[in-house]
Design brief:
Elements: E1 5-9, E2 14-18, E3 21-26, E4 30-34, E5 40-44, E6 53-62, E7 66-75, E8 78-86, E9 100-103, E10 109-112
Antiparallel strand pairs: 1-4, 2-3, 2-10, 4-5, 5-9, 6-7, 7-8, 8-9
Pfam family, one: NTP_transf_9
InterPro entries: DUF427, DUF427_sf
Length: about 110
C-alpha cells in the first residue's frame, strides 16, 4: 500500500443519510486515511439500500486506488448526482475497499451514531 494511505476498521456504528432517508447503517465500515485529507468512511454494499443508488457514467482514476465508478442517489426531493463512489476493482494495495462505497459529505450526511 502506498505509505500515505491507511485503511482500518471504522470504530462504532456509522450511518449515511440523504434526502431525509437512511441509506445505510454499518458496524463494518472502513476508514481510509490518505495523506493530509480528511478520513473517508467506506460502507460495505451489503449494509446499504442499493435500490437508492444508481450507477452513472462518471469515472475517475487514482494512481494509488485505481478506477472509481460513481453513483447518484435517488431521493424523494430529486436525484443527488454523483454523490458516491466505489473502486470496483481497486489496486491490490487497497483491496480492502473492494465491495464498499464512499459518499461526498457535502452532498449527504455521514456520521458515527
Amino acid at each position: 500500500m502506498a505509505d500515505h494511505i491507511k485503511i482500518r476498521p471504522a470504530t462504532g456504528t456509522w450511518v449515511v443519510r440523504a434526502g431525509g432517508a437512511v441509506l445505510g447503517e454499518s458496524k463494518n465500515a472502513l476508514e481510509l486515511i490518505e495523506g493530509d485529507y480528511p478520513a473517508v468512511i467506506y460502507f460495505p454494499k451489503d449494509d446499504l439500500a442499493m435500490a437508492f443508488l444508481e450507477p452513472t457514467d462518471t469515472s475517475s482514476t487514482c494512481p494509488f486506488k485505481g478506477d472509481a465508478s460513481y453513483y447518484s442517489i435517488v431521493a424523494k426531493s430529486g436525484p443527488i448526482a454523483n454523490a458516491a463512489w466505489s473502486y470496483e476493482t481497486p489496486n491490490p494495495e487497497v483491496a480492502a475497499i473492494e465491495g464498499h462505497i464512499a459518499f461526498y459529505t457535502n452532498k449527504v450526511t455521514v456520521e458515527q451514531v
